[in-house]
């Protein structure tokens, strides 16, 4: 294993110290493992909090800032954060208007966020929780009962972050989070396995001419192991999986993310985006907004995920609202 | 070789088509291989153009937009663009106020941009050229006479792009480009080699426990082959190389970029940034602004480059000016 780290045990602490050094606009509690906006809560605004295992950066810390998250709780690499982190984050950012927890559907994350919600209610903080479960590849997997939560998390955090910024109440914000999740589907393909620092070796074996189709963001198995093919053919498989699960009609508008899993060159992501655009254009489906880059990664895994959200006018308007985070920034 | 491509020959065309599909705010000439801002030249504004071999994305196409480049000319992967591309770009974006070519110091790039400048002058377009040569690792290398141009290109393009936006004339803009280059130093370390699509195999062999210290952005050899060490030790070597070449005094202000070479997880880049910040803090040198992420990549190479610019007040003010490109965006 070759990594730019000091020790496997210190990766998260060292990275959080680096985030604190690089981003003075954030309040980073290295010991307590909470990344929040500096300046505390804004009266009347619903606070939006997310979190999960580290190793998926920029998710979630890179999305903390005006127009998106109020705080993020990073666990150890590929390990759920503990309830104390979410409780501490909730206490730090709640203005009295309540807190939305955005939780990717992994068993550990669900349980720990649920416990945190109970602890927060004990302290008179109102909490709503939304589960993100957009990955159509498998139902029930190594780490999850039901579908895994992956790329749609970015869409939920952006759109709901904008809505909360506009002053919507907790019920309205939670409702929109569910709408965005329900409208989004993801599918991923891995070209290589990733290596978690504590494991010291790749999470699975993948021969030199094969890809894992439907892979999860921790290297969980997908639907099938297949020979590497052209980008066009790989995208066709992914889009078939997405559109089988959520058909799109001519004239519908979408937000599309072509997301690198960590070790994929950007030039390849644009090759993939071109194929995605061709598939949707052939169905007269419009890509109204898009992201191409590394947003939800799996450490050093090579591969790509594709997320398609069937977007209504409200979602597009909230998507366009100003956002000012380290990983997503426009209009601000 | 496993890559998300159709054929090695079509990578650039397919990626350019993807860029065009993802970024309607750009005018992408796929056939002519020019990425320009949509909307044509703005009267009185100096046009800023850069370019070079592909495989370093988001450099340069990701930096085209208000506040930064007017156009970028991508060559084939790791291959200089041809003079016709720069000429075509110059004709498309020159407003009559002249054109600045920002050229990384590689022999092919120098020669082709020089020829393009002569062709442009024949068409009554005034051209100034600035060479970027910030990499302190080696003097004269496989691809270069003199120092290689790497990370500082981002600083030059951002700062000079802002100055041109403010209406400065060509001489002033070119002068600032030289100042930023002269104030900047870079040094890189590779953990793995990269694989160019046309080559089909890694550009060099690197054992499982070794790193290439002082590597170039095409995998050119550096100063030494060493055993992998802690991030702290690796950063100490890099910073020694940077500060030997350009000592920094207590109280001085810098812009620092910790840049992933393509396959490095963002969490590791923050670990590295933390160590860089510690080295500079120990010298009472201020990191006034910073970037942490993938800005000048080498396809799927794992590794990091560190760029430090000794920044004066003008540079910091121009750094803060609005920029609106796919890879760098703030205040807009």
TrEMBL record, chains A, B:
GO terms for molecular function: phosphoenolpyruvate-glycerone phosphotransferase activity. Residues 7-330 form the DhaK domain. The keyword Transcription does not apply. Its EC number is 2.7.1.121. It holds the Pfam family Dak1. Keywords: Kinase, Transferase. It comes from the Bacteria. PANTHER family: TRIOKINASE/FMN CYCLASE (PTHR28629), TRIOKINASE_FMN CYCLASE (PTHR28629:SF4). This is Dihydroxyacetone kinase subunit DhaK. The gene is dhaK.
């Amino acid at each position: 294993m070759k990594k730019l780290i000091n020790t496997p045990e210190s990766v998260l602490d060292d990275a959080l110290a680096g985030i604190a050094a690089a981003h003075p606009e954030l309040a980073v509690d290295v010991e307590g493992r909470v990344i929040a906006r500096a300046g505390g809560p804004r009266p009347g605004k619903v606070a939006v909090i997310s979190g999960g295992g580290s190793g998926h950066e920029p998710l979630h810390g890179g999305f903390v800032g005006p127009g998106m998250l109020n705080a993020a709780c990073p666990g150890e690499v590929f390990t759920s954060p503990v309830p104390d982190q979410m409780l501490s984050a909730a206490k730090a950012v709640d203005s009295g208007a309540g807190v939305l927890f955005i939780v990717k559907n992994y068993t550990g994350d669900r349980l720990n966020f649920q416990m945190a919600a109970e602890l927060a209610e004990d302290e008179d903080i109102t909490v709503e929780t939304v589960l993100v479960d957009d990955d159509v590849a498998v139902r029930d997997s190594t780490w999850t009962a039901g579908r895994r939560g992956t790329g749609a998390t970015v869409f939920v955090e952006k759109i709901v972050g904008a809505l909360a910024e506009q002053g919507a109440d907790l019920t309205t914000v939670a409702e929109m989070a569910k709408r965005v999740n329900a409208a989004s589907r993801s599918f991923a393909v891995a070209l290589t396995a990733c290596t978690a620092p504590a494991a010291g070796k790749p999470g699975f074996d993948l021969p030199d001419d094969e890809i894992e189709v439907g892979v999860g963001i921790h290297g969980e198995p997908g639907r099938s192991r297949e020979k590497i093919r052209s980008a066009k053919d790989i995208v066709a498989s992914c889009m078939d999986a997405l559109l089988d699960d959520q058909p799109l009609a001519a004239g519908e508008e979408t937000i599309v993310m072509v997301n690198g899993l960590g070790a994929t060159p950007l030039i390849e992501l644009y090759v993939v985006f071109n194929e995605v655009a061709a598939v949707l254009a052939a169905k007269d489906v419009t890509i109204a907004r898009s992201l191409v880059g590394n947003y939800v990664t799996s450490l050093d895994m090579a591969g790509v995920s594709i997320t398609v959200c069937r977007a209504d006018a409200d979602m597009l308007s909230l998507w366009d609202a100003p956002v000012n985070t380290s990983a997503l920034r426009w209009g601000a």
